[in-house]
Specification:
Elements lengths: L6 E12 L1 H11 L7 E8 L2 E8 L2 H4 L2 H5 L4 E9 L14 E5 L2 E8 L5 H10 L9 H13 L5 H9 L7 E5 L4 E5 L8 E4 L5 E4 L2 H6 L3 E5 L5 E5 L2 E5 L10 E2 L1 H6 L5 E2 L2 E2 H15 L6 E4 L5 H11 L7 E3 L13 H8 E3 L1 H4 L3 E6 L6 H12 L4 E6 L27 H8 L3 E4 L6 H4 L4 E2 L1 H4 L14 H13 L1
Helix pairs in contact: 4-5, 5-6, 9-10, 11-13
């Protein structure tokens, strides 16, 4: 089992036609770390939607010829995906496009609904036919259903938000409007900015706003709906403050890029803080501190700063392979080609090794083996997250406790299993130092879920149900 994060979303709005696809391309490129399974762009050309979606990385899917085939448009919505719900196939590529009685709609979604199974079942019983195995299509169905009686698309979305539960940061496009919304808990990040020539951009992270040359304006608040149209930008706040804010703490620990700022907190600063906490809670006598690229580097720097132990580059990452945490497939094989040890740095040294998490222990064991083979004398592993003990229902693919090593073994046992001389995890009670003491969700560590736990918690449960139905029809 490996961990995955749902997606990255991006949107463009302009008062006049622009190269919306090109802007989306660079925005998605900056969000590639959030998902490497598939990507897509839908451009609004005066009410006509032109789209391209496929499996693969942004640079693979959107070649020069594909980008040149897009018309200029005043709006666009884009998405890069790793699916926590649903399988790997082209049907599940986003944005989801819908044609209905009240017009067209394109929808991109980051997160996971905790009540998706119940909602989908209810829709199927009314005759809804699903073409994907994602809960994003469930959101699209509910918004479309509400739009049949609502006076506007934003009103339909607001009505839908009374029904949806769990994590969702959305960018939605109609023929005349671009709308973004964040669930009332604020599980997943969402922000927006504006370029010098007046083009608005919406993105999962501020790094993507910066990547397209826009100036960051602010985060979308939990529960807020923002409507971009020729009448300007309108904020609807009827869902704001209805729930306690619960940003996923793993955005700071792993998912987000270190140059992003989420809800006013620098991701880089959060990871430095994690390293400092680890030094105080789990000191070690060592010659050097090294981090596992990329998300372990900032915490390693923080450990070095707090402890006074020199920081070194002891592991080199192959920049041309995707992140094992995100990429589908065999983790062990990917680790073999992803990292290599710098023998001149680690040989004969006592090392503090910093990584962002341990799930099964397979990857950690392989990294420690690399360092041993390169001549490391002692390896004291420190992890900038607490132990994973519970499944997540909000977009992080921690699906079952069965494969979580910390559910079955003590810390000393895990250290022995992965080959470390000692092992220390970030205490769950110190997570507040990462978020700047803001409210956060840490359910995967402490089991304190903000929402009702779904009754069906199987991985790819919709895909399993579809398979079962197809078999019964055969």
């Amino acid at each position: 089992m490996s961990l995955h994060e749902e997606c990255g979303v991006f949107g463009v709005f302009s008062d006049k036609p622009v190269n919306a696809a090109g802007i989306c391309y660079y925005g998605l490129y900056a969000l590639q770390h959030r998902g490497q399974e598939s990507c897509g762009i839908v451009v609004n050309d005066d009410g006509m939607f032109v789209s391209h979606k496929d499996l693969g990385l942004v640079s693979e899917v959107f070649t020069r010829s594909v980008l040149s085939s897009f018309p200029e448009g005043s709006m666009a919505v884009a998405h890069t995906r790793y699916g926590t719900t649903g399988g790997t196939n082209r049907n599940n590529c986003q944005p989801i496009e819908v044609n209905h009685q009240k017009g067209r709609m394109a929808l991109a979604h980051n997160g996971n609904l905790s009540n998706a199974a119940e909602l989908r079942s209810a829709l199927e019983l009314t005759g809804a036919i699903f073409h994907t195995t994602t809960d994003t299509e469930t959101i699209a169905y509910i918004v479309t259903k509400e739009r049949l009686t609502a006076p506007s698309i934003e009103e339909a979305l607001s009505m839908a938000m009374h029904i949806l539960d769990g994590a969702y940061s959305l960018v939605l496009m109609s023929p005349q409007k671009l709308i973004c919304a964040r669930d009332p808990y604020g599980f997943r990040p969402l922000c927006y900015g504006q370029t010098e020539d007046g083009v608005y951009v919406i993105a999962s992270e501020s790094c993507a706003v910066n990547a397209v040359g826009a100036e960051f304006i602010r985060d979308v608040e939990p529960g807020e709906i923002l409507i971009f149209s020729r009448d300007g930008v309108v904020s609807r706040r009827e869902h704001c403050g209805t729930k306690k804010k619960k940003l996923c703490i793993f955005e700071y620990l792993y998912f987000a890029r270190p140059d992003s700022v989420i809800d006013g907190r620098s991701v880089h600063a959060a990871r430095i803080a994690a390293g400092r906490v680890l030094t105080r809670e789990h000191p070690a006598k060592a010659d050097i501190v090294i981090g596992v690229p990329d998300s372990g580097l900032d915490a390693a720097l923080g450990y070095s700063m707090e402890s006074g132990i020199p920081y070194e580059i002891g592991l080199i990452k192959n920049k041309y392979i995707g992140r094992t945490f995100i990429a589908p497939g065999d983790r062990l094989d990917q680790v073999k080609i992803k990292l290599s040890a710098v023998r001149e740095v680690v040989k004969g040294k006592n090392i503090v090794l910093i990584d962002d998490s341990i799930v099964r222990g397979t990857t950690s064991g392989r990294i420690i083996s690399l360092l041993r083979d390169a001549g490391a004398k002692e390896i004291h592993m420190r992890v900038s997250a607490p132990t994973f003990l519970h499944p997540c229902f909000y977009g992080t693919d921690i699906d079952s406790s069965d494969n979580l090593i910390a559910c079955h073994h003590s810390v000393p046992e895990i250290a022995e299993m992965i080959g470390a001389d000692s092992l220390g995890f970030l205490p769950v009670e110190d997570l507040g130092e990462l978020s700047g003491n803001a409210e956060y969700c840490s359910a995967c560590f402490d089991g304190c879920y903000p929402t009702k736990i779904p009754s069906d918690t199987r991985k790819s449960r919709f895909e399993q149900r579809l398979s079962e139905k197809q078999s019964s029809f055969a």
